[in-house]
Amino acid sequence: MTRHFLRDDDLSPLEQKEILDLAEQVKADRWGRKPLAGPQTVAVIFDKSSTRTRVSFAVGIADLGGSPLIISTANSQLGGKETASDTARVLERQVAAIVWRTYGQEGLIEMAHGTQVPVINALSDEFHPCQLLADLLTIREHKGELKGLIVAFLGDGADNMVHSYLLAGATAGMHVRIACPADYLPLADVVADAEKIATTTGGSISILTDAAEAVTGADVVVTDTWVSMGKEDEKAARVASLSAYKVDAAMMALAKPDAIFLHCLPADRGYEVEADVIDGTQSVIWDEAENRLHAQKALMVWLLEQAA
C-alpha cells in the first residue's frame, strides 16, 4: 500500500520508532541498503531555495542506489499551467517517489491524492516533518529514550517547526513546551491534534508565553529563525516581538545541566540565538544537520517497503 509522509502524525508511535531504529541502522552501515538500485529515479522538487534539504536528499537517494532528479518549479509547468495532481500522474510513471519542498500544504495533499508513488513533504509553510525525524534521531543519540523528555521551543509559535514538534514530540511521548508571544501562536487545530496524540503516548503539550517557564528543567532547547523565507519585510516587527525568546547562555542555564541545543539552520546569530550557545558545548546542531541524511534515507526505505 502506498504511504505518504505529508505531516508528522502520518506515522503512528510504533511507525515513528521503526523509522528511527532504521535510521540508526543505515547510519551505521551507510551503503548497506539499495532499494533504489537500477538506478531508480526520485523526483526532488523545489519551490524554495535550499541547502540541507537539497544536499541530504540528493546524497541519500544516491546512497540508496538511485538517481535524484532535481526539479525547480521556476523551470517546470508545476504551479503554472499544470496542477499538482496532473504533475503527479506524469511523474508516477517514471519515478519511484516524489519529494517536494513547497509553500502551502494543500499542494502536497493534492499531489499525494493524484499518485501511486510515495510523496514526501520536504518542507511546507505548515510542517517540516523530515527535519523532525532528524531532530528526534539526534535527541535519541544524545539522550537515549525519547519518551518523557522535556523539549522547549522558543520563538515564533506559528512556525512550521513548532507544528512539527507538537505532532512528532507528542507521537514520541515527549513533553513539548512552546514559548511564544500571544500573537504568534501555533495553529489551534494542530495543537488539538497533538494533545489528542499525547493522551495516548503519555506526552503533554504546553503553550506558554514565558520563555523562562518553558526552558526551566528542559532536556532539549530548540529555536528557529524569526524571519522565514517570504517574511523578510516583517523583520523589524518580528525582532521586536520575539526578542524576549532569544536563546542565550542565561536561558540555557535554566535548562538541565546536560540539556542539548538544536536549531534546524540557517541561523541568524545574535537574533534567535547567541553565538556562544550555537557554538557551545551543549549545541548538537552539526549532528542534527547530518542526521537529515540518515533519517530521510530511513524514511525512503520504509515508504518504499510499504509500497512493495
TrEMBL record:
Q: What class of enzyme is it?
A: transferase
- Part of which pathway? Amino-acid biosynthesis; L-arginine biosynthesis; L-arginine from L-ornithine and carbamoyl phosphate: step 1/3
Species the sequence originates in:
Rhodoglobus aureus
A Pfam family cross-referenced in the UniProt record is OTCace_N
**Domain Aspartate/ornithine carbamoyltransferase carbamoyl-P binding: start-end pairs:** 3-141
Binding residues annotated for carbamoyl phosphate, in chain numbering: S50, T51, R52, T53, Q77, R101, H128, P129, C130, Q131, C264, L265, R292
Where is L-ornithine bound in this sequence? N160, D224, S228, M229
**Enzyme Commission identifier(s):** 2.1.3.3
Residue ranges that the Swiss-Prot or TrEMBL entry lists as coiled coil: none
**Which controlled-vocabulary keywords does the entry list?**
Cytoplasm, Transferase
Q: Which reaction does it catalyse?
A: carbamoyl phosphate + L-ornithine = L-citrulline + phosphate + H(+)
Domain Aspartate/ornithine carbamoyltransferase Asp/Orn-binding per the UniProt entry, residue ranges: 147-303
NCBIfam families attached here?
Answer: orni_carb_tr, PRK00779.1
| Phylogenetic placement of the source organism | Bacteria, Bacillati, Actinomycetota, Actinomycetes, Micrococcales
Principal subcellular localization = cytoplasm
Q: Which SUPFAM superfamilies match?
A: Aspartate/ornithine carbamoyltransferase (SSF53671)
Q: Which family does it belong to?
A: Belongs to the aspartate/ornithine carbamoyltransferase superfamily. OTCase family.
Q: Which InterPro entries does the entry mention?
A: Asp/Orn_carbamoyltranf_P-bd (IPR006132), Asp/Orn_carbamoylTrfase (IPR006130), Asp/Orn_carbamoylTrfase_sf (IPR036901), Asp_carbamoyltransf_Asp/Orn-bd (IPR006131), Orn/put_carbamltrans (IPR002292), OTCase_ArgI (IPR024904)
- The organism's superkingdom is given as Bacteria
Q: Where can this protein be found?
A: Cytoplasm
According to UniProt, the name of this protein is: Ornithine carbamoyltransferase
